[in-house]
Amino acid sequence: MPGNAEVPLDMMKSRSWRWVVCLLVIVLGAACTPSEKRTIRVAIGTQNATINCATGGLLLRELSLLERFLPREGAYKDVEYEIVWKDFSSGPPITGEMIAGHLDFGMMADFPAVMNGVASQQAGKRNVYIAALSGSAAGAGNGILVPIGSPVHTMADLRGKRISVAFGSTAHGMLLRALSDLGMDPERDVTLVSQQPAEAEAALRWSTIDAHAGFVPFAELFPFRGIARKIYDGAITQIPTSHGMLVRAAYAEEHPEVVVGLLRAVIEADRLLEQDPERYSEVIEQVTGVDAEVAYMFHGPLGIQTRDVALKPQFVHGLRVAADTLVLLRRADDHLDIDHFVDDRYVRQAFEAAGVSYEERIARTAKVPITGADALTGAPIADPKRAAQIWVEGETWVRPYGSPASALAARRKLGAEGRQVRAMFVHDRHTGLKLLAEQAWYAEPPDGDLAAFLSRDYAETWARERKGAVKQLAELKAEPAPAPQPPPR
């Protein structure tokens, strides 16, 4: 019967081969189909205008350093990175975005960083502090400004006045500590008003506010632009301050190699900036609009702050002080365990991968020195607190001088030659803080050994002890130039 007819052997073989061929086509086709790449987001909240964060954001983006150091091997061989940069004017908005899961990394100062830790804790989440970017063991970088024509010269003069500050910023923390040190109650003795830097600039220009507490770079930028005068620097508190980087703990646990790669990029940006501060200060200006001269005040030799990715003990101490200050002044409901908040595992791995000793970087506390010879006299530069610098219009490099008197003589000479000066820097004889020459007070003793100071009170004390006079740069420039001293034989 047809239904029971046997199938010839050669036909069975033919059908079997057809099935084998079909199966091979299916298998090989699947094997030849490219595997779907895994995408990892790297979303970073930056503060570009806060220029001491440049090595953690702005320079990484402009120089494509992050792409260079993200992992590409092993489990990351087929990974595609979605790099997201979001810029903010202060730290608190970054905190909100991190808690919402819209950002993976954020950079901010110690005071808002502690508030970030508290807020994430209250939200049932955890962010950790993984690296420093820049800081000052003395507290320099924040400052209190008054309008140019203000009669205010000291913090005590601000009793009963209106002071603006970006609430939740590191300048806010500095202001609260400064008032507390003077025995002033921030809720009774002054009126605090919340203002972001852009609002404060206009308020200072038109004298609609008595003072503004500013963070980096505005405590230097507004005076440089001639709209304010600094009467108080955070260095007076002698409490360490720093800016650093945070990451969502869950993200770091899932992608630890990405965190290490980001920190390796930061280490490289730090190296480049130390090597050529003038060049990268110009890059910072191009991106942010913050004048290169102000960027150089932070990133050049003997800068206002030191840059380092290492989590130095003094900066961790600054976080503890910030946490204690928040609780003491009833600005936070919960206390943050700093030992649990700070996690140095990733930055240690980054330094090891870069071939740099982490312990040596932890121990390095000195600022990058001003080296070489005085550009006017040829004498070696010996005392950092007496050093000065001039950035001449049209020149790539900043000129060094051994003293304010030598720099002043050079400035007079440049003026006689018709050369323009972009900026002149001097250093506070008491603290070593880098100052804009036009903003400093000078004690001029009979021997002509000019000493520069931020505070008029310090200048007056110095001058009185040496039977000298207190002057400002405009008065000194108008005086006849003394003959420069020859270099020692």
UniProtKB/TrEMBL annotation:
One Pfam family matching this protein: NMT1_2
Q: Which UniProt keywords apply?
A: Signal, Transport
Provide the leader sequence positions: none
Stored SUPFAM superfamilies? NosL/MerB-like (SSF160387), Periplasmic binding protein-like II (SSF53850)
Family of the protein in this entry: Belongs to the bacterial solute-binding protein SsuA/TauA family.
Q: Its function? A: Part of a binding-protein-dependent transport system for aliphatic sulfonates. Putative binding protein.
UniProt-recorded name of the protein: Putative aliphatic sulfonates-binding protein
Q: What is the lineage of its organism?
A: Bacteria, Pseudomonadati, Myxococcota, Polyangia, Polyangiales
